[in-house]
């Protein structure tokens, strides 16, 4: 059943990934009320905006949920997802040390300990808060873990 | 099993919906430290506050998780939920274009693609970040999808 | 099956709990760009920072996901989790009345109504927004409910 689920997910995600595009949109105006900036906008095949890789408003940065869409164990997937978060953070002018809050969605709660091993220490001496739950087949794209975060610049 | 789950959920939610009331509470003071404002407070049948439809603090707006509590497919439910989010945003002085972050909880990950089709383009050219997972029976009130968001004014 | 899952979770969490340490780190500088403050840092047995109990940035406070790791029903677990949130809020200089957003992850959606009964009224007359889903075995540490929050000071 779990295998079947994951196969279905892989199909869905592959399909979705096929319509992904990248773009950078917009800059905040400094002479007026603050506006959001967005980075790495994902669009569908008709160029319709779907979501952004990150959004910035004032000195806050919001990063999209990231997964690992390749064959690998929880360690590899966790490290990849953290790397994806870091890329977005740097692009938006933030860093891993400036993360305030992380949400972690595991495919399987049995991966909790191994996720922790790969996760610890990655955000410096003043780590963000974290909320972790498992969703048993609910992470898109066959990823063993999905994470998003809120940070500052 | 899934059907059974959804029947139970429908019962729970119907029960909960029976005790819902609406109200608008509070305004921020402009001459002191910022205070939160809240909109569309949901109370129980003894008038005890449960949660708000949105909260506003400074120029940030937080919108409660919204579901679709009627018979319908993922397209209808997604469109309804987005409409509910928009109502809250407008009431709080924000808009779909000012959303920074969306969280999406699907009932079934197989609805991912159809959710995307209904979702895309609804937040303008600079879309919010998004995190999507499925919770397989975990969305209250028999809804196929629940979404919340963080925005600005 | 559910029982089996919960037994596994208990083992995982007990193991994780064994490496938990507490610490308070850092103060914001008032004469420069705002920095985050963190409280109740959880570290592993080699003193590597894992996550914080709360983070503070400007006048925003982020509290980590809290669970109830003892035998008890949803009422006891909900009250405990709310109490844990309150402790973090007070430590960071905030309070239950200053919470803007709560995320609730139930072990079982059948606990929705009883969770509400224990939850209502705990945040004052201007309650935070709330997003609730169930994750059926996905809450770490055998807790029937996990909650996090965003607040202000």
From TrEMBL, chains A, B, C:
> What is a single cellular component term in the Gene Ontology annotation?
cytosol
Cited CDD domains: YjgF_YER057c_UK114_family (cd00448)
What's an example of a GO molecular-function annotation for this chain?
deaminase activity
| Protein name stated in the entry | RidA family protein
């Amino acid at each position: 059943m779990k295998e079947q689920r994951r196969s279905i997910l892989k199909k869905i995600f592959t399909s979705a990934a096929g319509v992904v595009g990248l773009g950078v949109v917009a800059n905040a105006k400094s002479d007026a009320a603050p506006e959001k900036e967005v980075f790495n906008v994902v669009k569908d095949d008709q160029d319709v905006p779907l979501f952004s890789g990150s959004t910035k408003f004032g000195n806050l940065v919001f990063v999209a949920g990231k997964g690992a869409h390749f064959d690998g164990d929880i360690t590899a997937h966790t490290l990849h997802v953290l790397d994806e978060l870091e890329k977005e953070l740097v692009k938006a002018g933030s860093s891993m040390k400036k993360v305030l809050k992380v949400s972690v969605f595991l495919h399987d709660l049995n991966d909790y300990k191994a996720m922790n091993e790969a996760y610890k220490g990655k955000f410096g001496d003043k780590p963000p808060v974290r909320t972790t739950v498992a969703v048993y087949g609910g992470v898109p794209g066959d990823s063993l873990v999905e994470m998003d975060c809120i940070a500052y610049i």
